[in-house]
């Protein structure tokens, strides 16, 4: 199945539970419009999709479609309730006349309809942000996607567009940043394949240091292993100073930066740097893609936390979410730069992506080492 930004997630807005008080706000609003149908002109922009309840969506759609009866007729006959029920029942079979009468009784004051409508819009905005944040988390963690980075960035764009749209609907106010405690964030799981790719990047970049000049899109913080990020910093530091780069000079730079320990000594460092295979750019892109997806995952979790905190106003949710997505901009720009760069002619990537000599499979060990 081809992968595209339009890939459908397995949940939607109907699966996002509403804020419990909004159910009563929806009832009060609909009850007010049943009692005084002409107040629909006072409630501002509202559509059936703003309602969390399917039956309430059907009722409001009927109210927005049907012409209100003349006030004198409405005062004498239940023509409005009858028309609404007839129009809405095919779309919500559970509706009964008694429920519509209950809605009318649930409205404290029809004059407060604009306030009830604002509550409905606010919770719809919260649930919409929560839904799109869920789409982002799902895309960033779905390893079954053929091109997870493309889908994830399309989810970022959709969430950004939603926030831009909502920003014009809710006024700013003091204390615009949410005070939601940060959620418990998962660490990036590091498996043998991840470790192997980072090791191969270090060894191939040591063998082909000229590639470092075109790989400024990769940063030490993109590595999952702190030690390997430190070794990559050694490589880029040597390159920026114009000094020779080989496994011995990198070893010396690693010592100067305090990276050598009893567990990772000179011999281990030399073995790690002595197994180049394939182009450095390939391994660099693998590392950067993983960093992009991980940070998108964390951003989605942060935004979910903002939207789930019912003490946050819509403006606070929007502001906090925008700031969170802004932190993704840097790694996204580097990813786009990396994937637009033509890869230099290098030996092909081996089928077996093994690490240094003490982790290599027999197939990789038997393959010829690329010449410099």
Biggest beta sheet attributes: none
Shape annotation = rod-shaped
Tell me the total number of β-strands. Answer: 0
Overall mean confidence score, pLDDT: 89
Class from secondary-structure proportions: mainly alpha
First-last Cα distance: 40 Å
Relative strand content: under 5%
* H-E order: HHHHHHHHHHHHHHH
Low-confidence parts = 1-6, 352-372
Instruction: Write down the oligomeric state.
Output: single chain
Using only C-alpha atoms, the radius of gyration works out to: 29 Å
SSE map:
Elements: H1 20-35, H2 54-65, H3 71-76, H4 79-88, H5 97-105, H6 113-141, H7 148-167, H8 192-207, H9 226-240, H10 247-256, H11 266-272, H12 280-308, H13 314-326, H14 329-340, H15 362-366
Could you explain the architecture of this structure?
This protein is mostly helical and 372 residues long. It is 56% helix and 0% strand. It has 15 helices and no strands. Helix 8 (192-207) runs parallel beside helix 9 (226-240) and helix 12 (280-308) packs antiparallel against helix 14. The relative contact order is 0.12. The model is unreliable at 1-6 and 352-372 (pLDDT under 50).
Keywords:
15 helices; 372 residues; disordered C terminus; 0% strand; single chain; rod-shaped
Question: Nutshell version of this structure?
Answer:
The chain has 372 residues and is mainly α. It has helices at residues 20-35, 54-65, 71-76, 79-88, 97-105, 113-141, 148-167, 192-207, 226-240, 247-256, 266-272, 280-308, 314-326, 329-340, 362-366. Residues 1-6 and 352-372 have low confidence and may be disordered.
